[in-house]
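User: Just a sanity check before I run the rest of the batch. Below are the structure tokens for the first item. I only need the designed sequence back.
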């Protein structure tokens, strides 16, 4: 009897996998122009270089957690179909030019439509229980959607201002006089500008994704996850400030080419590693507290003492 039930469950899951596989292939054909544009956009915009990796990471998470995700599948037609319809309508509006044409808004809208269709197809194929278990990999797909240009400009400006503030503070701490005019910093022998290229938007997104995955695998308490993710922004501006100050001091005291050399253009990973090292103690402390929270308390044996 148990073998028969297991066989039925396996056959049922195989049919669901096949149905979702067909749905996914059809969606690739329909959205092929959007997918090609996303790949092209990702390869030529440093703030979106992560986009081509997001579906692969999401698929990997679904695969590695498949036993938990597909433990209890069911048929959930209406909500899943509803999400697919919403995504299809949004994509139709993009195609007919009904969304604003400024910047990358059409591409962002089309990418959002694709994500909605994929999530709706998953919900339709496997049901609420599996979609709830797969919530993180599914919502992780939202990182495929490029930020609209106005929102991206606002984030870059915020990082610029934060990096400039930290840079001025670090120069004062090491005893280097600095005069600030906006994003331009005047030192005794050199003038530097914290340009938008120095905002660290690419490393910020990479650090956020890294922390998001680490929190998913190791943390369960919502407030601890939120605290860990909120540390990304201050760590990014501190990292940017350290990078700017380091390159400037090296250019003053060692060689002026440090402001334009390999360490400036290709040395971002060194300072990215610094940010990870600064985050590591916080992560380990939160992870340790999680283990202590779920660790069962030792049972206490009460020994009665007979009274005379």
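Assistant: Here's the designed sequence for the first item:
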């Amino acid at each position: 009897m148990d073998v028969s039930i297991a066989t039925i469950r396996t056959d049922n899951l195989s049919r669901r996998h096949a149905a979702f596989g067909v749905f996914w292939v059809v969606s690739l054909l329909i959205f092929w122009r959007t997918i090609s544009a996303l790949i092209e956009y990702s390869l030529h915009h440093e703030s979106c270089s992560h986009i081509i990796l997001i579906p692969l990471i999401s698929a990997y998470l679904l695969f590695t957690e498949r036993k938990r995700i597909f433990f209890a599948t069911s048929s959930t037609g209406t909500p899943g179909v509803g999400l697919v319809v919403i995504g299809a309508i949004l994509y139709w509006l993009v195609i007919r030019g009904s969304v604003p044409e400024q910047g990358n808004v059409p591409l962002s809208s089309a990418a959002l439509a694709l994500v909605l269709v994929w999530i709706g197809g998953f919900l339709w194929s496997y049901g609420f229980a599996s979609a709830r278990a797969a919530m993180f990999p599914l919502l992780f797909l939202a990182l495929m959607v490029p930020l609209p240009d106005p929102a991206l400009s606002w984030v870059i400006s915020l990082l610029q201002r934060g990096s400039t503030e930290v840079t001025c503070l670090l120069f004062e701490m090491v005893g280097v006089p600095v005069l600030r005019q906006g994003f331009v910093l005047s030192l005794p022998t050199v003038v530097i500008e914290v340009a938008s290229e120095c905002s660290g938007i690419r490393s910020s997104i990479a650090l956020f994704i890294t922390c998001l995955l680490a929190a998913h695998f190791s943390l369960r308490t919502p407030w601890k996850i939120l605290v860990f993710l909120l540390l990304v922004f201050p760590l990014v501006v501190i990292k940017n400030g350290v990078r700017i100050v380091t390159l400037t001091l090296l250019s003053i005291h060692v060689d002026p080419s440090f402001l334009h050399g390999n360490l400036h253009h290709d040395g971002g990973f060194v300072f990215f590693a610094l940010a990870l090292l600064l985050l590591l103690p916080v992560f380990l402390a939160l992870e340790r507290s999680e283990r202590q929270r779920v660790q069962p308390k030792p049972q206490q044996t009460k020994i009665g003492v007979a009274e005379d």
